[in-house]
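About this split. The held-out portion is used to measure sequence recovery: a designer receives only the structure tokens and must propose an amino acid at every position. Recovery is the fraction of positions where the proposal matches the reference. Here is one held-out target exactly as it appears in the evaluation file.
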């Protein structure tokens, strides 16, 4: 007999405890508070009996001294269990306890009075036999059984160590006895039974029996603890025979017909854990090594297989126990002792028919150690090989076994990791990914050689996914669909990127989309988890990320995000960070575009739906007729995505240029050209081969390519770094590269343009190519500077105009010719024969700029967003040279009116030509509800208008690219454009769903406003700002100008606020006379004081129209007030003298007269107060007039309200904390107005308002005035100005406020 060393013992305990916990997890066991049969037995008969035996001689019996709690050591005391059970259940358990007690006594063959005899020994009366025999045996403490049930694994392990150590000592002492019958003389306990434990001490017998019964308890961690104890005990003490344990397990945990479901389950699980303890003790292996002909392993296997056949939930853990034996036994023992055990051959034979995945698992694990060909012919192919194992026929034959593995969900059956290991045995293919990343999915990959093993693995994966995933699991129940996704997650860590298209097949992607498209689906969270794990797996691998994107979009026809209502593909595309990854992605998108068999044959129902979250939601809007079917939709997604993913990409300029060049070549080839012969063309000049799809690309897709080309070139122009072209042999100029690429392909005989052009369009294309080439040379020769910027901007405008000619032939020939002429005149080379124009040099410059402006304006109506961006870039560099005629031409467009003549007054026709009338609002002074109500139909957001009125701090502007539709209208003063505009409107109206002339004009105005905003930014502080401001103000005030468009109103408002009112540089040029500023000020003051008129027609308007009308009135008044502040700021910046500003003072004085003289005046005191606050000089000049009129006001309300104006002027002129010089000036100012102040205060106190709030305002005003008088030592002078009656009135009305002043005299 041997004792395990402590370190090894501790290690074994921890390992075994964890394994038993694993078995518990396999079983899905739950905590229960009910008391099993084993617990009842442990708490009653065995407890008392063993205590009597374990007492050594010469010591008093401990039973009588033990508390009830100690009597319950083991699983649980009866009282503690009863407390946790409800009353009715407690009664049932008590009856059951009595029943089990009687049955236990009958089974042990002991009379009922036995317990009474044992209990009587607690009264210090030792039993003779026990005392004479037990003196030679050590004591065994049964309290360890209680610790075995602890939830703390450390406590359980300590209890096991204590129990094994004590029982070792007991057994060793027992073995040294010569006469063993004396020890068992009086009480043999349960050991009297024929249990095979003949050579074991009574305490050891009791412990073994109790441990076997304990593993059937389902309370807390009892099963794990007792199984751990049984394992350690059997492994340590050889006297406990395996045969005896098998017999005891069956006898003590026998299932009878009277047992209920839970009792049966506990007994069966108890057997399972007991068998597991035997295996993990290592005794079976030792038995075989000591006797290779032993039958114990066969008996054990037969018992375990019999147990596994009883219940389905016992099958997998039983096989896991067998697998532990398989791991420990050598190969020669497996054939004779495992496979030939009674019941095992029949179990394997029936596995395929009944669908037993555990039998298949066992067969595969045994085959790993030794060949079993022919032994399990139905389960495994013979001879065995991975190719035969994953052949379609074999996988179909075992499909039942694979399907039935779902019973253990949500856990994945142990069979699947074994199959995955065989399917993908190593990571050789993954290492190959890094070496062939750029070749893995490139075109012509048929020529790429691969090893036979790699081909075999690829075939196996193909067959596995086809038969198991697609045909067996995905077409079955929800549980099996769940299993399919779990298996795919098992494959992912080992899966090479070249296998991703096989695994993410059409059916897998369709199933995933169907689930994700419905949030109420039972599998929705499963699919979400799978998608999350898949994205995490590809996050740091560009090759895998590309393969996943292509698989998703290929099998969803480019609608994966749309159908699943996610941003999966969009987010994946945003994760490219390297040039290699971007190039790989672009190449795969090109292959996807050229692939004819890409469309899914079985699209799901949801795949036809659209969603606003999809990144492809805008494709159908671009050409509702051209793009038809899923194939074109996928190609459309490729076209849109191939350039859009670069928007947020951060690469160094060289790398980004190379990626953009590949994209540009693809878009150019597929969008601009077609092959006349076949679908492949080789360019020897470019040393490159170009391919087209076998089916002719639709016109709609070609137009999409051209639009994306324009967007790509426009984005490059926006973010380009400063150019140093002088010494660069091959500059990174994408526009220049495109023009050379376009010219080269155009000259290849077997390549033609995608559409036939007219002679005029062909001529325009040729001239545009020539002019761009000239400007490119000129740009490289002139170096850096503004001229280089102009040339660069014009070049890109020419490039985009060339694409526009191809996109919309027949519409841009005239504009192209005019632009070419402008380029010739603007940058005429010395050796250019066309450099001398027809016009004389004296007036060439202004006429040139007018032509440039006209040309840019003519391009705006029909241009795309990239084209408008290029126009704005050109205008930005030329706007400093724009003439007044060109500027006024743009401003007249903003003021253009399409309202019928009955809405205009007779003299309104001349209003546009009156350049001296800077604001020109007299014609539209009646801002009435009837007129403005007509424009309110399209204003859905009246609350936004009120927000704009809030003050000058609100300058939120609308996005510049909000006008996406084509079309527009030019100025009627440009005679060359009248016929052109009429033609545009005619075409638009003839189109189905075309916009009206009014909406076209609004869009055109928005585009011109973008140019004006650029002009204001580039010409800050110049006199032209006043011109732009005045015309924009007229357009804003005139209700017919904005055509009821709130977008246009707020655009104008935002430009005026941001570029005029808030601009720090003011127009200080003397070229603007003061009279002009005075006129502008007068009109703004009139507009700010204009009342809101109600007409009779207003009674018939809806509440919505009335609200919109009132909001517009408030916006106009706010504009007038802010304009007044700005004009006064401009005047003040010119440093005029007081004498020169008498006209300005007179205007403000007239406003004050109206304010005090009329009760209907709409001038707000806050407006006047702000004027005095911002312009102290105005307050100083008008203070006397203000005091006089305040005292003579016709109403108490107006008089009290005007006191704020008085205090505001005094604050600016009489500061409380001032130096000596300022003090003298303030004293002089206040002293000159003391008489008027006295009269005002006398009026206030003699005509004291009756309302309390107004009285309070009067008191506050007088108090502040008195404080200023006191601070400047003018008390005596002021009191002299007050008469006797005035003093008396002040004392009575003001009280302490005046008495304080009087007492200082």
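Reference sequence for scoring:
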């Amino acid at each position: 007999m041997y004792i395990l060393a402590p370190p090894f013992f501790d290690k074994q305990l921890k390992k075994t405890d964890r394994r038993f916990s694993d078995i518990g997890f396999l079983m899905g066991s739950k905590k229960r508070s009910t008391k099993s049969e084993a617990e009842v037995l442990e708490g009653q008969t065995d407890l008392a009996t063993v205590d009597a035996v374990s007492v050594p001689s010469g010591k008093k019996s401990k039973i009588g001294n033990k508390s009830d709690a100690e009597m319950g050591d083991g699983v649980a005391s009866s009282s503690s269990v009863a407390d946790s059970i409800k009353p009715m259940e407690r009664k049932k358990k008590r009856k059951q306890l009595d029943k089990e007690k009687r049955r236990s006594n009958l089974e042990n063959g002991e009379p009922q009075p036995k317990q009474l005899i044992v209990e009587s020994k607690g009264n210090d009366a030792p039993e003779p036999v026990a005392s004479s025999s037990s003196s030679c045996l050590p004591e065994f403490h049964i309290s360890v059984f209680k610790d075995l049930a602890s939830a703390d694994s450390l406590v359980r392990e300590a209890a096991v160590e204590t129990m094994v150590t004590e029982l070792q000592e007991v057994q060793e002492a027992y073995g040294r006895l010569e006469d063993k019958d004396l020890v068992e003389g009086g009480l043999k306990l349960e050991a009297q039974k024929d249990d095979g434990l003949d050579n074991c001490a009574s305490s050891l017998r009791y412990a073994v029996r109790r441990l076997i019964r304990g593993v059937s308890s389902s309370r807390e961690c009892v099963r794990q603890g007792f199984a751990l104890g049984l394992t350690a005990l059997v492994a340590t003490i050889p006297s406990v025979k395996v045969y005896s344990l098998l017999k005891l397990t069956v006898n003590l945990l026998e299932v009878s017909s009277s047992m209920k479901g839970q009792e049966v389950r506990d007994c069966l699980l108890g057997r399972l854990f007991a068998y597991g303890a035997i295996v993990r003790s290592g005794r079976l292996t030792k038995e075989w090594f000591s006797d290779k002909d032993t039958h114990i392993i066969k008996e054990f296997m037969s018992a375990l297989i019999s147990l596994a056949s009883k219940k389905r939930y016992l099958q997998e853990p039983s096989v896991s126990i067998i697998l532990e034996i398989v791991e420990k036994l050598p190969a020669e023992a497996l054939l004779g002792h495992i496979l030939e055990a009674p019941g095992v051959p029949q179990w394997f034979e029936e596995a395929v028919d009944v669908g037993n995945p555990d039998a298949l698992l066992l067969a595969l694990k045994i085959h790993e150690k030794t060949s079993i060909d022919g032994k399990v012919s139905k389960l495994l192919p013979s001879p065995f090989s991975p190719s035969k194992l994953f052949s379609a026929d074999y996988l179909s034959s075992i499909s039942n076994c694979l399907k039935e593995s779902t019973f253990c969900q949500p856990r994945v059956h142990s069979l699947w990791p074994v199959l995955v290991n065989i399917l993908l045995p190593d990571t050789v293919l993954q290492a190959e990914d890094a070496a062939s990343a750029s070749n893995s999915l490139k075109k012509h990959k048929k020529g790429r050689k691969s090893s036979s093993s790699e081909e075999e693995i690829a075939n196996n994966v193909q067959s596995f996914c086809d038969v198991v995933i697609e045909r067996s699991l995905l077409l079955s129940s929800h549980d099996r669909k769940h299993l399919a996704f779990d298996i795919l997650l098992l494959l992912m860590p080992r899966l090479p990127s070249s296998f991703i298209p096989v695994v993410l097949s059409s059916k897998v992607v369709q199933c995933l989309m169907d689930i994700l498209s419905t949030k109420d689906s039972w599998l929705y969270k499963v699919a979400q988890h799978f998608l999350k794990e898949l994205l995490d797996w590809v996050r740091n691998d560009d090759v895998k990320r590309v393969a996943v994107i292509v698989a998703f979009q290929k099998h969803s026809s480019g609608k994966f995000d749309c159908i699943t209502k996610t941003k999966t593909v969009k987010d994946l595309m945003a994760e490219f960070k390297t040039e290699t990854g971007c190039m790989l992605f672009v190449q795969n998108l090109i292959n996807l575009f050229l692939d004819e068999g890409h469309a899914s044959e079985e699209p799901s129902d949801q795949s036809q739906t659209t969603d606003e979250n999809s990144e492809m939601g805008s494709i159908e809007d671009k050409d509702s007729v051209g793009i038809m079917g899923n194939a074109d939709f996928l190609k459309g997604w490729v076209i849109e995505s191939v350039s859009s993913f670069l928007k947020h990409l951060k690469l160094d300029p060289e790398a980004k240029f190379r990626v953009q060049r590949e994209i540009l070549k693809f878009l150019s080839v597929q969008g601009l050209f077609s092959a006349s012969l076949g679908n492949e063309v080789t360019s020897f000049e470019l040393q490159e081969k170009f391919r087209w799809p076998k089916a002719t690309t639709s016109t709609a897709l070609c137009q999409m390519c051209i639009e994306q080309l324009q967007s790509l070139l426009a984005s490059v122009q926006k973010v380009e770094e400063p150019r140093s072209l002088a010494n660069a042999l091959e500059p990174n100029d994408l526009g220049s590269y495109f023009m050379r690429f376009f010219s080269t392909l155009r000259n290849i005989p077997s390549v033609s343009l995608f559409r036939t052009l007219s002679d005029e369009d062909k001529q325009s294309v040729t001239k545009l190519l020539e002019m761009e080439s000239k400007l490119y040379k000129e740009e490289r020769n002139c170096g850096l500077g503004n001229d280089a910027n102009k040339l660069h901007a014009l070049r890109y405008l020419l490039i985009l105009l060339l694409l526009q000619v191809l996109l919309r032939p027949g519409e841009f020939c005239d504009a192209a010719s005019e632009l070419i002429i402008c380029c010739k005149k603007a940058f005429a080379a010395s050796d250019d024969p066309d450099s001398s124009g027809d016009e004389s040099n004296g007036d060439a410059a202004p006429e040139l700029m007018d032509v440039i402006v006209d040309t840019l304006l003519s391009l705006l109506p029909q241009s795309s967003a990239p084209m408008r961006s290029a126009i704005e870039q050109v205008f930005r560099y030329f706007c400093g040279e724009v003439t007044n005629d060109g500027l006024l031409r743009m401003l007249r467009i903003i003021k253009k009116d399409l309202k019928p003549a009955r809405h205009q007054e007779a003299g309104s026709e001349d209003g546009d030509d009156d350049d001296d009338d800077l604001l020109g609002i007299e014609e539209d002074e009646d801002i009435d509800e009837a007129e403005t109500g007509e424009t309110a139909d399209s204003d859905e957001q009246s609350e936004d208008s009120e927000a704009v009125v809030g003050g000058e701090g609100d300058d939120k502007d609308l996005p510049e690219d909000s006008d996406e539709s084509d079309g527009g209208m030019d100025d009627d003063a440009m005679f060359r454009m009248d016929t052109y505009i009429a033609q545009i409107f005619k075409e638009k109206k003839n189109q189905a769903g075309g916009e009206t002339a009014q909406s076209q004009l609004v869009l055109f105005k928005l585009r011109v406003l973008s140019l004006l905003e650029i002009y204001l930014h580039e010409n800050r502080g110049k006199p032209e700002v006043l011109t732009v401001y005045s015309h924009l103000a007229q357009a804003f005030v005139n209700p017919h100008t904005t055509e009821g468009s709130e977008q246009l109103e707020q655009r104008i408002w935002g430009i005026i606020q941001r570029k005029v009112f808030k601009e720090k540089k003011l127009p200080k040029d003397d070229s603007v006379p003061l009279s002009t500023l005075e006129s502008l000020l007068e009109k703004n003051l009139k507009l700010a004081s204009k009342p809101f008129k109600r007409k009779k027609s207003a009674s018939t308007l809806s509440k919505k129209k009335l609200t919109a009308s009132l909001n517009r009135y408030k916006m106009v008044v706010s504009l007038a007030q802010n304009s007044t502040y700005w004009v006064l700021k401009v005047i003040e910046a010119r440093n005029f003298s007081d004498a020169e500003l008498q006209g300005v003072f007179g205007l403000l004085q007239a406003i004050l007269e109206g304010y005090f003289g009329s009760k209907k005046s709409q001038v707000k005191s806050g407006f006047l107060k702000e004027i005095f606050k911002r312009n102290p000089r105005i307050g100083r000049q008008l203070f006397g007039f203000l005091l006089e009129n305040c005292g003579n006001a016709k109403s108490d309300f107006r008089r009290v309200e005007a006191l704020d104006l008085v205090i505001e002027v005094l604050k600016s002129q009489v500061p409380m904390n001032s130096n000596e010089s300022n003090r003298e000036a303030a004293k002089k100012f206040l002293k000159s107005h003391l008489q008027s102040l006295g009269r005002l205060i006398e009026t206030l106190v003699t005509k004291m308002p009756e309302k309390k709030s107004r009285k309070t305002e009067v008191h506050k005003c007088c108090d502040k005035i008195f404080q200023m008088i006191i601070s400047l030592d003018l008390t005596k002078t002021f009191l002299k100005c007050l008469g006797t009656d005035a003093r008396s009135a002040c004392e009575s009305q003001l009280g302490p406020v005046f008495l304080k002043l009087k007492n200082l005299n």
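Annotator remark: The longest helix spans residues 1103-1133.
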